[in-house]
Design brief:
- By secondary structure, the chain is of the alpha/beta class.
- It folds into two domains: 119 residues, Leucine-rich Repeat Variant (Alpha Horseshoe), CATH 1.25.10.10; 268 residues, Vaccinia Virus protein VP39 (Rossmann fold).
- The longest helix is centred in the middle third of the chain and has 18 residues.
- 43% of the residues lie in helices and 14% in strands.
- The chain is built from 21 helices and eleven strands.
- It is elongated, with a radius of gyration of 29 Å.
- Helix 7 runs antiparallel to helix 8, helix 7 runs parallel beside helix 9 and helix 10 runs parallel beside helix 12.
Length: 454
């Protein structure tokens, strides 16, 4: 009979009756699911609400019950509950309960609550510390609070450092800076035959919306010879540091790489395998790129070099070398305190509508796409691969950059999808090849230009 009357409407009507009615109801329902249902459906509390039954429930063994008890106490905004909330914030066994207790203290916006939040800053859980900072930022401008929060820029946790940097140390943008959705005309549909580092040094900050590229593999082909693997990584570090500078706030870098094998010089020596995507990753994070996703590009086994042949003959353990049918598309975003929605809202309604990804998009991080082969360039991007990246990570009218353009597939695909492109390519053969394929059918206002650094 009790279960029949335990409804949302019943709870809310009872809540407004006063006289500790909810407290009496709670005594009748001691099982966890009923307690959670009651507390979850209280909604906004009247000023006359009697919460005297709540502290006892903080001893409940179910953490979800304790969470909703703390949340309900927070709705009351009563400083008399501060000692109880402090105890929960510092001692409860569940992180979510502790975090909600800190949040409830912060919502009180009182000096007494401030002192508790300052104490919570010493907590070992960074999520709790961040919640305490959030509550303390209400008092931003108070010398005592500011002098305690600012040194947290050196906190060991990256989330804490990010919050403090945004609130106290982030540079303000120049209000006369170029609008986020726009770029400079001199970058639109341009191919430059030069070292990409030399070209990027001439570009203004935050000029590019998206970079999609596959850097030359370490000493795998004649066009990419480096004195050492470390010097190769240093070169990539320099390149992507410049890409970071010229990329607009919160926009993306998609990096296509895979481990590479350097063949052995004789049967007396072993071949060497270099894990390029894993080795370059720490450099990118250090310079400010935020890792977002790893996408696996899977090719048909028949299209890749056979490494398993010897093992198939003898099948001796230790000698197993599988055929490499995958490459990585590592997705990074330029660090920003702004959410993705901010980036999207920089575009007008029509551009957003026209840029929507068509039906049939890939829903997993494994993309099965056949590779391309070209008599001029030995490592050509498939158009389908470019198409997905450009559609998923840019808007129409954006400028898409490829610092290692090769045969120019990124540029051609960007153009066909209503984007502009900016390409750099050091090899004159590839540059002339792109020039021979020049098209003037699209973007007549910005006809493709082929330039040298001079």
């Amino acid at each position: 009979m009790l279960n029949q009357m335990l409804t949302k409407d019943y709870i809310r009507n009872l809540k407004n009756n006063g006289n500790g009615a909810i407290g009496h109801l709670v005594k009748e329902y001691q099982d966890s699911s009923s307690l959670i249902f009651i507390l979850e459906n209280l909604g906004q509390l009247p000023k006359s609400f009697d919460g005297s039954f709540l502290p006892e429930l903080l001893l409940h063994k179910n953490s979800t019950v304790r969470f909703w008890v703390v949340k309900t106490i927070g709705k009351l905004g009563d400083e008399d509950f501060l000692p109880i909330l402090k105890k929960v914030a510092l001692n409860d066994s569940d992180t979510n309960v502790r975090r909600e207790a800190v949040s409830s203290i912060g919502r009180m916006r009182t000096k007494k609550g401030q002192s508790v939040l300052l104490e919570v800053l010493q907590d070992h859980d960074p999520k709790i510390v961040c919640q305490a900072i959030r509550g303390l930022l209400v008092f931003k401008g108070d010398d005592k609070v500011d002098n305690i929060l600012k040194p947290l820029l050196n906190h060991e946790n990256e989330m804490v450092r990010s919050v403090i940097y945004k609130e106290y140390f982030a540079n303000q943008k120049d209000k006369y800076q170029q609008p986020h959705s726009e770029s400079y005309n001199y970058l639109k549909n341009v191919v430059v035959n030069a070292d990409t580092l030399e070209v990027m040094k001439l570009l203004k900050d935050e000029s590019i919306h998206l970079t999609f590229t596959s850097p030359p593999y370490y000493n795998a082909r004649d066009y990419s010879i480096y004195p050492s693997y470390q010097s190769y990584l240093k070169f990539l570090e320099d390149v992507f540091a410049e890409v970071y500078r010229i990329t607009k706030e919160g926009r993306f870098l998609i990096l296509n790489t895979s481990p590479i094998i350097i063949p052995r010089i004789s049967r007396a020596h072993s071949s060497k395998r270099y894990p390029i995507p894993f080795d370059i990753h720490p450099y990118l994070i250090e310079m400010g790129w935020e890792f977002i996703d790893d996408i696996v590009w899977m090719k048909p086994e028949a299209s890749v070099k056979n490494r398993i042949g010897g093992f198939q003959q003898h099948r001796k353990p230790l000698a197993y070398k599988p055929n490499s049918v995958t490459e990585y598309l590592m997705v990074y975003r330029k660090s920003t305190e702004k959410l993705l929605d901010w980036n999207i809202h920089q575009y007008d309604w029509q551009t957003v509508q026209e840029s929507k990804v068509p039906e049939g998009y890939e829903t997993t991080n494994v993309w099965k796409i056949d590779p391309c082969f070209d008599k001029v360039h030995s490592a050509v991007f498939p158009v389908e691969l470019c198409k997905r990246v450009i559609q998923y990570y840019s808007y129409k009218g954006d400028v898409v950059f490829d610092p290692f353009a090769g045969s120019g597939t990124v540029g051609k695909t960007a153009k066909s999808l209503g984007r502009f492109f900016f390409l750099t390519e050091k090899d004159e053969t590839y540059f002339n090849y792109m020039k021979s394929k020049k098209s003037t059918k699209m973007f007549d206002t910005f006809e493709t230009r082929f330039l040298i650094l001079k």
